[in-house]
Amino acid sequence: xxxxxxxxxxxxxxxxxxxxxxxxxxxxxxxxxxxxxxxxxxxxxxxxxxxxxxxxxxxxxxxxxxxxxxxxxxxxxxxxxxxxxxxxxxxxxxxxxxxxxxxxxxxxxxxxxxxxxxxxxxxxxxxxxxxxxxxxxxxxxxxxxxxxxxxxxxxxxxxxxxxxxxxxxxxxxxxxxxxxxxxxxxxxxxxxxxxxxxxxxxxxxxxxxxxxxxxxxxxxxxxxxxxxxxxxxxxxxxxxxxxxxxxxxxxxxxxxxxxxxxxxxxxxxxxxxxxxxxxxxxxxxxxxxxxxxxxxxxxxxxxxxxxxxxxxxxxxxxxxxxxxxxxxxxxxxxxxxxxxxxxxxxxxxxxxxxxxxxxxxxxxxxxxxxxxxxxxxxxxxxxxxxxxxxxxxxxxxxxxxxxxxxxxxxxxxxxxxxxxxxxxxxxxxxxxxxxxxxxxxxxxxxxxxxxxxxxxxxxxxxxxxxxxxxxxxxxxxxxxxxxxxxxxxxxxxxxxxxxxxxxxxxxxx
Length: 509
Description:
Number of strands: 10
Largest sheet: 2 strands, antiparallel
Distance between the termini: 63 Å
Shape: globular
Strand content: 5-15%
Structural class: mainly alpha
Strand order of the largest sheet: 1-2
Number of helices: 17
Order of helices and strands: HHHHEEHHHHEEEHEHEEHHHHHEEHH
Low-confidence stretches: 418-423
Radius of gyration: 25 Å
């Protein structure tokens, strides 16, 4: 860790990043639908519990069946993702495994076992347990999946904003000093709320799209209309909440990852009263300052400000990247000297002096591995456009769900009376179906911003990617990359095929 000249092939780093990104992207194709359908099927079974109407039981069973197909695929990709921390990112796992491993262990022990227990009751307990216990099992299955997401997002948020830890120079590891700080980090809370509400949007879009297919085919129209009301209702609430939690997330990013925010806006020279770009050349006045600081005249630093150092309106200053690099190298040198002094039995004064220098500069430890300040600038084009895709589609979904709900509840009434439920032109239904993949595109775009935006850091300001990677042959990682690509693509194709067959079959009403 203390050697600046790490002899790891650059292609190994690239292939390791590509493999992890591939696994994460495929995994996230399954997770949001699991979280979204969990809420929808829970509401449907609640309707059955309250009304005792068999229609709602059959409807709930249908959506639970789709949930189960997707749930199984998500588990398989998630397990592989966690193993990659040890195989491809062993330096990272060694350096911060005591911290990063804790939320993942909780997720595996508590949340995953909770899901697996109650999902069995949900599927096989309809005639074996009471209606109340079965309803509780359905909601607890969804709650277990949500808790699982919580701990995974806590781990990811810690990489973006490392808190509750101290570096131990004797073990060469970061060690947790406060589990509460890690688990309840404001960054983690914001990330969880925004991510889960975005998953509910996908559940709503999927539900409405499937219902529109039935309406277009003039099949199961009652089930389709009632399910569509629930799906659109969940989707609209989720879309509004996602906008609100997204605003809070942007403030967190502005506070602890200002370079990410600057890349999202392609903002090179910052200042006060900054406008938010719609596209290049078109902007909403003052909106960026408000988004970042809750103040229309708030100060937002740009890329050049962050590279060269700047002074805030309150008089405080931020050092340049060059200064941070020097202080990072000082920290690494002090760590080397400290360990050498202890090994040689030097007197306490020398050891304490080196330790004091290390602690003073530890904040910039990761910058000691940066060779050129341009390395700390993330890919601007990816962040800029991914952010706009996410926000633009989010606004589209708010309007979409509002229109669907208005129509489903009788406006315009003449088009939605029971005998005319299929009277709408087919293109209305095709629009709803086409929005299903757009929901995934919006969600994946959000993750592109989150992960590309913190490059080159595996852990923000602490550990660059090229220090975190395992010392493997690039060819080995490349081979497994293509094996995973084939495996995950096959799994996705199988899931889509099974889902389509189940949707075509329809509910057993």
